[in-house]
Amino acid sequence: MHYVIIGNSAAAVGAVEGIRRVDKHNPITLISDEPYHTYSRPLISYLLAGKVTEEKMLYRGQDFYEKNNVTTLLGQKAIAIDTDSKAVKLENNKVIIYDKLLIATGGTPFIPPMDGLEKKNVFTFIKMADVKAISDVVVAGNKAVIIGAGLIGLKAAEGLASLGVDVTIVELANRVLSAILDEEGADIVQKNLEKRGIKFELNTSVKAITGGEEAQGVTLSNGKALPADLVVVAVGVRPNTEVVESSKITVNRGIVIDEKCQTSIENVYAAGDVAEGYDLIFAQNRVLPILPNAYCQGETAGLNMAGSESIFSGGFAMNSIGFYGLPMITAGIVKPEGDGYEVLVKMVPEQNLYKKIILKDNIVVGFIYLNEVDRAGIITGLIREKTNVSDFKQELLKDSFGYIDLPQKLRRSKLLKGDSASCQ
Amino acid sequence: MKRVYAREEYCVGCKLCEIYCIAAHSKYKNDLVKTFKKEAKPPISRILVEESRPVSFALQCRHCEDAPCTKACIVGAMHKDPETGIVTNAEDRCVGCWTCVLVCPFGAITRDERGHKVASKCDLCSDNGQIPACVEHCPNRALVYSEYESNNGKK
Lengths: 424, 155
Ligand SMILES: Cc1cc2nc3c(=O)[nH]c(=O)nc-3n(C[C@H](O)[C@H](O)[C@H](O)COP(=O)(O)OP(=O)(O)OC[C@H]3O[C@@H](n4cnc5c(N)ncnc54)[C@H](O)[C@@H]3O)c2cc1C
Ligand code: SF4
Ligand code: SF4
Known about the structure:
heterodimer, A: alpha/beta, FAD/NAD(P)-binding domain, globular, B: alpha+beta, Alpha-Beta Plaits, two-stranded antiparallel sheet, disordered C terminus, binds flavin-adenine dinucleotide, binds iron/sulfur cluster
């Protein structure tokens, strides 16, 4: 039995750990086009800001591969998969034969068409190499334009601003973090960022990056022109499905997987940002590019690859982030559209405090916790378990909301189980 | 594995478990007086007494079999020991992103922002090598440290 994994991040590590829970011996080969030991991707903005060293970014210890009997092919890119001959072809012409394959190739930056993308000092922001390239050129006093006010764009902004860079963010939507916040929440976050000197151009897009060989500015579709020494394109990520394009594996937006994280082809699994797995809230397959989902799908794939039947009941959108000391945790549907939703809200503007819980048929389907995030996981758990909250709905927004507010029977069953479902 | 189970009918809501938890994690280990007198910023309790009179009970990390916090941690700091089952946070690696707070279904993780931000949680007093301080000092035996999923304190 030979396990082959393409990728070296959260989903791949989840798979290695899943496989090794069941099968301690059979060889695992892990292929990654990045030349590094597995690292925590979300920490790249910390690295840019100098808040962590490269060493502190390791997602697993230095002995991870050795301990788990994994042969690594780092700095080598997989370019094609032939599922008939069970072969992965690498760019350097090597061919790796698998019995069970996991595709965990993650995401790739989405780059909207615009003029001037080929200029120097135009960057993306999802990899270690991106940070190294930016660090090589950036100096305090530079002007940067970031395209996209999503999580990655704001993280890049925070990192650059901490280096003394003058940052302007251009965003097509009417607000920052439009995927995880509503207008009310986004407004608080934006003001907090503006206080630190970060500027915004909302409801507009970059038409062209201007300059000679190097970027010198951008022109916007609202007619404005902004000077820029560097431009970071952070509009979003999309599934990195390149390696399966010539194969028979079914791809919708991402590689379609079932509840065992298997693709349309037997013995071939996919997990993480490249995959399109089940979303518990939307009750359909969706791409969920977040780390907990990547790990859980990877682990589920690994268990199944090693022959231990395991089912991932699904994920849903969830994020915990913070900017300049303003933490936020959000999950699920944060801005319901259509009928049948009930919305509970608490807003204390002078404390930057905002809580919103969205219910459908007395089941929590989403929430926003801004600046008061303690014990948010209890709500996440109610979503996952689809708990009917009609008996304690009025308590949900309380500062001290906790297990005490659950009906005794429900509380006891949860606490006495002494355990919780996570991936399965 | 052994876990701490609360017997809410015996809990009197005195919060001594919180006090002893703080002392157990202070640099003046288990010394109540020094902890509260000398520590400039005493640790945060890793056990929480929830109450709504007349009911109260103490709650801390359940050391989940399939611990969601360990799977969600963005840096790989949260870890479940395969031998003992105890879930601990490698605090030097933790970046205080609170993703574990997002996924812990028991709300058992607190944000420790006294210095470098870290996720703080019950470690079953694993480096004390004895029964957890909260269990030891509960005056009415409302906390039991047991192998079994029982609420009656008997094995
Ligand atoms: C700046 C930033 C901040 C983030 N912050 C958060 C956060 O706070 N919370 C959160 O939940 N998520 C966050 N994310 C998202 C999170 O990083 C991803 O969801 C997660 O890394 C996905 O893991 P993955 O294993 O699916 O893929 P990836 O991490 O994308 O890794 C894919 C791997 O596959 C390799 N690869 C790709 N193609 C090939 C090929 N053809 N051949 C060989 N190797 C290949 C890549 O080099 C890479 O190593 C953040 C992302 C970024 C960029
Ligand atoms: S911190 Fe929460 S999720 Fe993690 S093991 Fe403890 S109870 Fe489970
Ligand atoms: S707060 Fe620390 S332990 Fe929790 S997920 Fe973030 S890095 Fe991991």
